[in-house]
Backbone:
């Protein structure tokens, strides 16, 4: 029997149209490509295993369709794919893959082994490719499906190998990819093993909440609300947390457009605006948005490399997201909270600042989106993932004027909304963000008296920490660091409990801050240690009990401003500015006086 | 409908129920107080849907049955400011006029049908307790509860009825307070009530003129009946940690001393420590306890106290002085007893020769 070839070499004209980006940038990219292949092969079970952050081994096994021996030989060739065959197909892509490039690229830079078997074949076959050198096919045994093993990534490109991050960091990046697959592939059974330890064993999930809670135990089920919203051309589903659950990092925010993960700051900003004033400044809710858009609403501008997509009516989409969130929250709070007056919500918009690691641009760019209604798309823009962006939770990085303003002497005269202090100075009006200033002063005190402030105070009732895998591994790696801040954690089996907290947190929310600091520590190996330490102290300052009452007196404020001037402070611990200057010259210009 | 009510009683009852009236609410009617005359009783009620009050005003005259809702904060102020001993209320279906001597206030009303039925009749068996007993026990424990609302399972007081005792437990993580009395009711069960509701409850029972307090619970809510008032509190849906495992057992050092003296010394010495992360060091050697504190900005303070009794081993241990102080300030006996195990284990603070309450405080590491 001659088995028909499914995989074919793409014609030149198609190859030319396909973005020739770099496919393999690190272990996480390999995992992403392999899992996509398994899903494209209609697997119902996908097992992912990595060793040493994926640097020594990445293994993805599935129970999908498998390949014939002939197809297997073609699969590792450049531009060979079973998923499309003509130019027209480029406009109708129903699969994650279509370039026929992934396996070929991986084969070039690693020791690749593929074992595969179709249901109808009597035995399995194995193919080995070492740095592009193919060995001959061998027989083997396995059930229907495919196992791909990638060893010693970049073994033949030492410069690239050195460029890889530590096993911890690379491993966490892989875990993040696994999270994203787990959030879209509810019907598949996913298994994730890291350094011989079973991290996830996720059977097909009944509902999204179930998945979310098993991935992120720190997000409480009761705190999650389902999104269900529809308007012309737009459907919005997913889950959001009620304002009782927030975190400082934005690492629990996910946007999927037509089934595909996208990183999109504007969408998240719109979503947070839906919360209006229910969110404390600098706090971010859990957001998992599943947008389903009519093909006409998205510009699938097949840019050769960028893989960008633009919403035709961007404002309409963003407004819909905001409304969807607001409606959902209203439903939950009709009786307990003041409604969000439209007015207040609109107003807050102009002042709502969100920062994302993507640069805000006119159009929302998402990775290439395909025109299809049953969505199954590539999870990641193929080219843009830079390591830092991937692991870095988007944090505040406000650029503060670096040019040295002369130090003015401020005289406070009024308090606005218990938040802003109005001051006069020789050049005009200055507005001080009171809470930011207060946080900064607490932070300064903390730095000055670090030993006393971080002295461990033991807890009568240890608090069990509920953490996702990323946080757990961070805790294991960064225990000393946490202890240097005054925390003590005890371990019993798989459970971790907080047994002591730094004295500065007495009377404050001491469990919330641990999670926050762990989020910060995830960046170890990516950011400098000093910076991480600073951020951790900023979190402590923010949660300390040295909080002033809600209505500070003008005298208190005056004292604090004196202190600010004495120490020449300009930003809050998170880098936001403390003072806004409105000069007389500006006022004069506005009022038409010269 | 026309009503005449004693001003004193009305003012007290309104201020009691208006405690739960929220400052802002989605439905305006929730910011109101319901006045209702039926079956020869005048009741006023308020609720924020978490906690609710219905109280009976005893001294009144009414010409017919009826009901209306007026804004809580407003009527509270109006009635308190009225000059005479009696208040006349006239409701015409649209507004309610409150008058007394020469002053008159006409207040708009809201539809009583919209007032939420928070149904104070909690089912479940009746437990009869003594108001004064409960009041004392609450005062002895409440201060140790976590103040942060976000820590839901600690931001309240645990009521625990077991086969022998009724216990109140409150803890904020660093310390724990426990008060108990014998449970003669035969009721077994546990519920956690929020700190806010316990504060409202405590101030309401303080003015009760009879000592009988009836408690009922259906598991989700708890109803309190005392002195013509019914208060309904929602049970906090969070699990109080298993505190029994942390109650220390085998002590190695025991100290007894004059409580006031200890309080004074703690106060003096903590001046040297700075707010928040302050630490006092207790050095127990022979019959002397040396209390000291040191801080980078306020220098050092040392004071030695002769203790009345010292059993067991010498010990050096550190604490946040605020926790020791607050515990000792709630000790009613002349002497206080401190029981230690070692410098990493909690101290148990209790009165001498009196059973029924104790405090546990965790140490800090000494720098
Ligand atoms: N796990 C698998 N099960 C079955 N067939 C597979 C599997 N992985 C790869 N293949 C086959 O090998 C071919 C090449 O895979 P490869 O990932 O290189 O390209 P692709 O998925 O077609 O496109 P892309 O480069 O965009 O991922 C696929 O088209 C598919 O036919
Ligand atoms: Mg592929």
Residues:
């Amino acid at each position: 029997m001659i088995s028909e070839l499914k995989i074919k070499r793409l014609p030149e004209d198609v190859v030319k149209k396909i973005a020739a980006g770099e496919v393999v940038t690190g272990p996480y990219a390999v995992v992403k490509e392999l899992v996509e292949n398994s899903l494209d092969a209609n697997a119902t079970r996908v097992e992912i295993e990595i060793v040493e952050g994926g640097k020594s081994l990445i293994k993805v096994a599935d129970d999908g369709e498998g390949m014939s021996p002939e197809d297997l030989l073609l699969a590792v060739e450049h531009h060979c794919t079973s998923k499309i065959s003509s130019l027209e197909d480029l406009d109708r892509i129903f699969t994650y893959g279509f370039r026929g490039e992934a396996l070929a690229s991986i084969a070039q830079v690693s020791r690749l082994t593929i074992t595969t078997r179709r249901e109808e074949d009597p035995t399995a076959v194995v193919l080995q490719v070492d740095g592009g050198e193919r060995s001959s096919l061998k027989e083997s045994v396995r059930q229907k499906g495919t196992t791909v093993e990638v060893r010693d990534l970049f073994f033949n490109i030492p410069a690239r190998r050195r460029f890889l991050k530590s096993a911890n960091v690379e491993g966490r990046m892989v875990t993040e990819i696994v999270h994203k697959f787990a959030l879209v592939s509810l019907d598949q059974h996913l298994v994730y093993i890291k350094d011989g330890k079973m991290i996830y064993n996720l059977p097909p999930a009944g509902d999204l909440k179930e998945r979310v809670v098993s991935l992120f135990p720190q997000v409480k089920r009761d705190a999650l609300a389902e999104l269900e919203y529809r308007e012309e051309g737009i459907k919005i589903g997913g889950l959001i947390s009620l304002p009782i659950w927030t975190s400082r990092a934005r690492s629990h925010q996910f946007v999927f457009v037509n089934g595909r993960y996208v990183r999109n700051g504007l969408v998240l900003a719109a979503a947070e605006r839906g919360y209006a004033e229910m969110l404390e400044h600098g706090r971010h809710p859990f957001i998992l948005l599943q947008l389903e858009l009519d093909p006409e609403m998205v510009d699938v501008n097949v840019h050769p490399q960028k893989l960008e997509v633009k919403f035709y009516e961007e404002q309409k989409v963003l407004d819909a997201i905001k409304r969807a969130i607001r409606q959902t929250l209203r439903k939950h709070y009709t009786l307990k909270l003041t409604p969000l007056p439209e007015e207040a919500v609109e107003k807050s918009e102009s002042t709502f600042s969100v920062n994302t690691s993507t640069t805000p641009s006119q159009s929302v760019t998402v990775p290439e989106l395909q025109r299809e209604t049953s969505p199954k798309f590539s999870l990641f823009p193929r080219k843009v993932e830079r390591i830092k962006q991937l692991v870095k939770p988007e944090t505040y990085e406000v650029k503060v004027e670096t040019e040295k303003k002369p130090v003015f002497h401020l005289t406070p005269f009024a308090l606005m909304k218990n938040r802003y202090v109005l001051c006069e100075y020789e050049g005009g009006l200055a507005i001080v963000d009171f809470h930011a200033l207060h946080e900064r002063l607490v932070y300064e005190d903390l730095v000055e008296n670090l030993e006393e402030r971080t002295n461990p105070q033991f807890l009568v009732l240890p608090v069990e920490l509920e953490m996702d895998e990323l946080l757990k591994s961070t805790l294991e790696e960064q225990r000393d660091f946490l202890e240097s801040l005054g925390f003590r954690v005890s371990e019993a089996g798989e459970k971790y409990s907080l047994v002591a907290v730094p004295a500065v947190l007495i009377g404050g929310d001491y469990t919330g801050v641990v999670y926050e600091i762990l989020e910060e520590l995830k960046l170890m190996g990516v950011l400098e240690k000093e910076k991480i330490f600073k951020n951790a102290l900023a979190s402590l300052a923010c949660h300390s009990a040295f909080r002033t009452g809600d209505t500070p007196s003008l005298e208190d404020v005056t004292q604090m401003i004196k202190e600010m001037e004495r120490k020449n402070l300009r930003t809050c611990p998170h880098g936001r500015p403390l003072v806004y200057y409105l000069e007389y010259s500006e006022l004069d210009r506005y009022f038409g006086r010269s | 409908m026309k009503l005449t009510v004693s001003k004193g009683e009305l003012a007290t009852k309104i201020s009691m129920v208006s405690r739960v009236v929220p400052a802002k609410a989605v439905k305006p009617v929730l910011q109101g107080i319901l006045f209702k005359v039926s079956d020869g009783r005048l009741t006023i009620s308020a609720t924020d849907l978490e906690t609710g009050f219905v109280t009976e005003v005893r001294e009144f005259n009414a010409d017919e049955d009826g009901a209306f809702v007026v804004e809580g904060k407003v009527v509270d102020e109006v009635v308190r400011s009225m000059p005479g001993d009696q208040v006349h209320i006239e409701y015409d279906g649209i507004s309610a006029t409150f008058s007394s001597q020469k002053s008159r206030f006409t207040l708009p009303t809201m539809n009583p049908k919209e007032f939420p039925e928070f149904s104070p009749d909690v089912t479940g068996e009746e437990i009869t307790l003594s108001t004064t007993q409960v009041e004392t026990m609450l005062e002895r424990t409440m201060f140790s509860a976590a103040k942060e609302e976000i820590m839901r399972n600690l931001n309240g007081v645990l009521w625990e009825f077991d086969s022998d005792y009724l216990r109140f437990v409150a803890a904020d993580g660093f310390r724990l307070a426990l008060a108990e009395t014998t449970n003669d009711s035969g009721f077994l069960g546990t519920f956690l009530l929020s700190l806010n509701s316990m504060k409202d409850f405590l101030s309401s029972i303080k003015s009760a003129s009879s000592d009988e307090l009836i408690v009922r619970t259906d598991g989700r809510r708890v109803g309190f009946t005392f002195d013509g008032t019914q208060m309904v509190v929602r049970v906090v849906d969070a699990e109080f940690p298993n505190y029994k495992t942390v109650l220390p057992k085998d002590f190695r050092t025991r100290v007894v001393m004059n409580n006031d003296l200890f309080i004074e010394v703690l106060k003096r010495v903590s001046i040297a420590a700075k707010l928040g992360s302050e630490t006092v060091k207790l050095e127990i050697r022979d019959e002397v306890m040396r209390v000291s504190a040191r801080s980078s900005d306020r220098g050092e303070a040392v004071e030695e106290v002769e203790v009345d009794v010292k059993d067991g081993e010498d010990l050096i241990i550190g604490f946040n002085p605020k926790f020791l102080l607050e515990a000792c300030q709630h000790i009613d006996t002349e002497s206080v007893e401190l029981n230690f195990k070692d410098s990493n284990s909690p101290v148990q603070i209790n009165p001498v020769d009196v059973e029924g309450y104790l405090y546990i405080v965790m140490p800090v590491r000494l720098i």
